[in-house]
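Lecture notes, unit on binding sites. The following record was shown on slide 14. It pairs a sequence with zinc ion.
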Amino acid sequence: MFRLELLPAQYGDAIWIEYGAGRKVSRVLVDGGTEASFPALRERILALPANQRHFELLVVTHVDADHIGGTVELLREREALGVSFGEIWFNGYVHLSAGGVVPTRESPDILGPEQGEQLTELIVGADPRKWNAVVGGGALVVPPTGPLQPLVRLPGGMQLTLLSPGQEQLDRLKPVWDSACRKAGITPGAATAADSERLGEVGTRGEESDLLGDPDVVQLASAPFVPDRARPNGSSIALLAEYGGRRVLLGADAYAAVLGASLARLPEAAGGRIAVDAVKLAHHGSSGNTSSELVRALKCRNWLVSTSGQQFGHPDQEAIARLIRDGGSGVGLVFNYRSEFNEVWASAGLRRKYGYTASYPAAGTAGVGFDVGRAKR
Ligand SMILES: [Zn+2]
């Protein structure tokens, strides 16, 4: 069994992963969504019997509010919810300098430059030995050269290979760390509009190609690719998760070029497209994170999009058009919300013309489950 759930996380990610054989189920959580969406995650946790509220791993992909907001809430309520983690992956301020490692609880300067860095505090408070333990408390960073191998085999048998970030993306984050934390609401005081503008998940929505009727897929897919430059996004921990002969690319909000470069370093990359059973699109289907080049590097039929469209109007039509045009035959789109920004892809005319499928949560609901183990190939 290998399942994903894209929990309703507003414009963020909260990806609940279950895998295992027989009755033994292991769990991994990738991000906690926004602070406001935390009740959905809490509810999902409470639906588990109290003795099963354990995650082999919690991944906090990067410091943006739509990934970290709910995670902070989760760690705050950890004891009350009876939740435990085998390990927590998060690149904190300490990891932004080469060679930096997780401090001990007693260390005098455990925090970054902003003293209210609550996530760090919460992780250290929970158990600093669990923080990035797989790399001895150091940074989770893609090695500079050589073929990429799985970084870990979790209890229960899931293997994870790190695809992002590289050292360059961590280096570039350091100067903006303070602001990124403010934006995430981790420190007292709201981020200024200027901070948001400078750092934000800047929408790169292009012009609608056809305001009446279906969009022009070919024209949209041909729009020039303008890569995402938001530094917190670049620092995203992106993973290839493998279990039982199936695998999923968890793109976080990573850069397309970083993902592409890492995919090319997988041992089987010489054989053409890299086969994966599903991709969680990077950055909620923003046009700046899904290039045609990246789509063509993959052999995948199932493309998962996590966003309500709130705030940034994701997914961008250019990104979805690239999947439809460049993703090979039988592309399937899976959305965890139905919104004014994605319902255009339900068009029967478009689906017929391009031979793809689009699935949405039932009316009035949000969040979606995806069975990786039984996914179409
Ligand atoms: Zn995001």
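Take-home: The domain at 2-187+205-374 is CATH 3.60.15.10 (Metallo-beta-lactamase; Chain A).
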